[in-house]
Structure formats: structure tokens, C-alpha cells
Amino acid sequence: MITLLFFAYLKDAIGTERLDVAHAPMTVGQLKRQLEADYNLDLRHVMVAVNEEYALEERTLQQGDIVAFIPPVSGG
Amino acid sequence: MDYERGEKRSMSTFFTITDQPISLEEVVRKVIRPEAGAVTTFIGTVREFTNGKRTLFLQYEAYVPMAEKMLAQIGEEISKRWPEAKVAITHRIGKLAISDVAVVIAVSTPHRKDAYEANQYAIERIKQIVPIWKKEHWEDGTEWVGNQLETKAYPTGKPEGEDLI
């Protein structure tokens, strides 16, 4: 299982803040492309954090990973 | 697990997300020490008008555990650049009214120049890497700031360069 977390406008677009999906061998980038297709989204400006650390598109996802989709931030 | 509430205590109370009003004095007290000759504070408040458009209130949301980690990372970056600086940052989430305090950054150093510079560095980095978002509530609608319509974004879709430190 992999846990996906969504924030801000992405949470509204996906319709939930959390999805649990079956683990399959894929990279962060591949997961993004799949979500873009499934939800008709553009995730080019969205960063991804795996287990609370920013991750590159090439990173391979592991069983149990928590994958957060982080739109451009606006704190401060 | 609840990823958005700020009630849970962080590992380090120097870098905190809270859903309660922020006490400036409490944040300052964390960095006061005999070695310090200067303390700078930055107070981020909710602005009523942005480009002529009136804000009624803001809603802040955070990925709390990661946001606190990123605040702590900013503290580490500051320690590398200004080894004598001590930093404390508290950011509030939830519903904030006009002039409410959204963030307080306190930096103490032996001499004032470093305290000013390190404090400005902290707020600029918060706006780059800390997973916090604000939703504008205007008279005629709402919008997440930093959404795909904004220019502030990562063109390659991933953090670059020093954002990965």
C-alpha cells in the first residue's frame, strides 16, 4: 500500500485529502503522470514529498511510502 | 492520522505550526540569551487589500509534520550561514482575520546585522519550501494562493538546487 496526500487546491480537485493505493513498481514521475490522466490534472508545478522529504521524479516508490503532492506553497 | 491540525507538539518547540494565536513574546523568549546583542522579529500579518481586491479572511492549511521539519531545516541553513544565530519560528494555521498574526520569526545574534539578514533569509525560505498554503476569501469568491494560475511555481515540477538541501 502507498498513501497519497493532497493539499490546498489539489485536495479540492481530487475530492479527498488521502488515497490509499496498491503498491506497484513505479517512480514519482510515473505516479504523477497516472494521476494527471486519471483526474485530468496538470501536475507540472506540483512538488512531491515522499515520507516528508522532497523527492525527485526518478525516485522509485516503496511499499508503505507516504507520498504528498505539494502545490506551490504560500505560507508567510 | 490527521495531517493538517497543529495541535500535536513538535519535536522541537523552536519550529512550530499552531492553530492558536501566536504570542510574539513567547517566540522572542526562545532566542534570548546572554550571548545575544540583538533580536530581530518578523511578524507576518493578514493584509486586507491585495492589488485592490479586498480580503475578508484567510484560511491557512499545512502539511504539519513536514512543515515543522522544513522550518527546522531553515534553522539549520541559518546555522550554517550565521553560526552564532539562534532562530525560532511559529506559523499559525486555520482561519485568520485581517491583521491577525500568521507567522513570527525571531532571530538573536551577537551583532545586529546578522540578525536582520538571517531573519529575512528565514521568511524568503518559508515562502519557497515550507508546505503551507493560504486560501483567500474575497467578497466575491475564494482561491488557493499559489495555485496553477500563479506565476510562483517550479517550472520543472520539482524542487531544484538548494531547495533539496
**Computed Rg of chain B:** 16 Å
Walk across the major sheet of chain A and give the strand order: 2-1-5-3-4
- What's the helix-strand series of chain B? EHEEEHEEEHEE
- Given this structure, which CATH class of chain A is correct? Alpha Beta
Q: Please, what is the CATH homologous superfamily of chain A?
A: Beta-grasp domain
Main sheet specs of chain A: 5 strands, mixed
Determine the fraction of residues in helical runs of chain B and give it as a percent range. Answer: 25-40%
Helicity range of the residues of chain A? 25-40%
**Mean of all residue-level pLDDT scores of chain B:** 87
Low-confidence runs of chain A (pLDDT<50, min 5 residues)?
none
Count, helices of chain B: 3
Q: What name does the CATH topology of chain B carry?
A: Aldehyde Oxidoreductase, domain 3
Task: State the largest interface.
Answer: A-B, 30 and 41 residues
> Which CATH first-tier class of chain B would you pick?
Alpha Beta
- Count of DSSP E strands of chain B? 9
Defining key terms:
heterodimer; A: 76 residues; alpha+beta; Ubiquitin-like (UB roll); five-stranded mixed sheet; 5 strands; 25% helix; globular; B: 165 residues; Aldehyde Oxidoreductase, domain 3; 3 helices; elongated
Write a structural description.
The complex is a heterodimer of chains A (76) and B (165). Chain A has 76 residues and is of the alpha+beta class. Chain A has one domain: Ubiquitin-like (UB roll), CATH 3.10.20.30. Helix content of chain A is 25%, strand content 26%. Chain A has two helices and five strands. Chain A has helices at residues 8-14, 28-39, and strands at 2-6, 18-21, 47-50, 53-54, 66-70. In chain A, strands 2-1-5-3-4 form a five-stranded mixed β-sheet. Chain A starts with a strand and ends in a 6-residue tail after the last strand. With 165 residues, chain B is of the alpha+beta class. Helices cover 27% and strands 33% of the residues of chain B. Chain B has three helices and nine strands, in the order βαβββαβββαββ. Chain B has helices at residues 24-31, 64-81, 112-129; strands at 15-18, 38-45, 49-50, 53-62, 86-92, 94-97, 101-109, 132-138, 141-144. The longest helix of chain B has 18 residues, at 64-81. The radius of gyration of chain B is 16 Å and the shape is elongated. In chain B, 36% of the residues are buried. The chains are: A alpha+beta (76), B alpha+beta (165). Chain A binds chain B through residues 5, 7-9, 12, 17-18, 32, 42-49, 52-57, 68, 70-76, and chain B through 3-4, 44, 60-63, 65-67, 69, 91, 102-103, 123, 126-135, 144-148, 150, 152-159, 163-164.
